[in-house]
C-alpha cells in the first residue's frame, strides 16, 4: 500500500500568521515552493492555514494592497485540510479532489512532516490516475474565472 508519507515532499518551512506577505513571497522564491503552511504565534507547528503564491497575488497585490503591510492572517481562510502520514494514496486523492486543493499537508503524531503537491502525485502515480485527478481539480476551474 502506498501511503501519503511515501509520496510527500518531506519537511516544510513555516510562517506565522503575523508574517508579512512580502516575507512569505521571498521565502517561497528562496525555497522554490508555491505554498507555505501558516502556524499560530503561540504554537508555530499548529496548522492555521496555508498560503499560496496565488493567494498573495489575488488577495493582496490585485487588490492594490501592500505585501509589506499585509499579514498572512489577513488572507488565510477556511479550515486547513490535511492527511495522516499513514493514509492510503486513494484517501489522499479523495481529500484533494473533494476539496479541490492542489497541496495537502501530511501530519504524523500531530506534527506536519511534509506536503503533497500535484508534482508529487505526477511523480508517483500512473498517468491515468494523474489525468483523473487533474480532471476533478480543473473541471470547475473555468467556472470560477
Automatic annotation (TrEMBL):
<keyword id="KW-0129">CBS domain</keyword>
<feature type="domain" description="CBS">
    <location>
        <begin position="75"/>
        <end position="132"/>
    </location>
</feature>
<dbReference type="Pfam" id="PF00571">
    <property type="entry name" value="CBS"/>
</dbReference>
<dbReference type="InterPro" id="IPR000644">
    <property type="entry name" value="CBS_dom"/>
</dbReference>
<dbReference type="InterPro" id="IPR046342">
    <property type="entry name" value="CBS_dom_sf"/>
</dbReference>
<feature type="domain" description="CBS">
    <location>
        <begin position="8"/>
        <end position="68"/>
    </location>
</feature>
<dbReference type="InterPro" id="IPR051257">
    <property type="entry name" value="Diverse_CBS-Domain"/>
</dbReference>
<protein>
    <submittedName>
        <fullName>CBS domain-containing protein</fullName>
    </submittedName>
</protein>
Amino acid at each position: 500500500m502506498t501511503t501519503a508519507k511515501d509520496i510527500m515532499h518531506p519537511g516544510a518551512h513555516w510562517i506565522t500568521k503575523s508574517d508579512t506577505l512580502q516575507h512569505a513571497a521571498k521565502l517561497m522564491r528562496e525555497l522554490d515552493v508555491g505554498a507555505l503552511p501558516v502556524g499560530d504565534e503561540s504554537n508555530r507547528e499548529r496548522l492555521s492555514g496555508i498560503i499560496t503564491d496565488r493567494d498573495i497575488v489575488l488577495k493582496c497585490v490585485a487588490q492594490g494592497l501592500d505585501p509589506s503591510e499585509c499579514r498572512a492572517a489577513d488572507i488565510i481562510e477556511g479550515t486547513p485540510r490535511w492527511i495522516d502520514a499513514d493514509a492510503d494514496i486513494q484517501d489522499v486523492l479523495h481529500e484533494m479532489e473533494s476539496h479541490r486543493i492542489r497541496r495537502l499537508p501530511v501530519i504524523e503524531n500531530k506534527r506536519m512532516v511534509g506536503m503533497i503537491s500535484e508534482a508529487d502525485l505526477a511523480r508517483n502515480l500512473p498517468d491515468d490516475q494523474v489525468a483523473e485527478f487533474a480532471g476533478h481539480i480543473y473541471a470547475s476551474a473555468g467556472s470560477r474565472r
